[in-house]
Amino acid sequence: MHFAPGEEAQIDFGEIAALDVGGVKRRVWLFALTLCYSRYSYYELVLDQTVPTFLGVIRRAFEDLGGVPTRPGTAP
Known about the structure:
Elements: E1 8-21, E2 24-35, E3 41-46, H1 51-65, E4 71-72
Parallel strand pairs: 1-4
Antiparallel strand pairs: 1-2, 2-3
């Protein structure tokens, strides 16, 4: 597969562990966004997969990247 710079990003979001968060055992999720051309990645740990959380991590990833790919995709 070949991609132009800035063309596409792949997104994955899944549970990685249960950790002690403030004295309470909580499920922890990892959001990962990887640019297909450069393989530069953005990662963030979160405590849920709600729509507001998902939209927030995508926004922060795009802010970190300095823009939005022309074709966001999903991991296979």
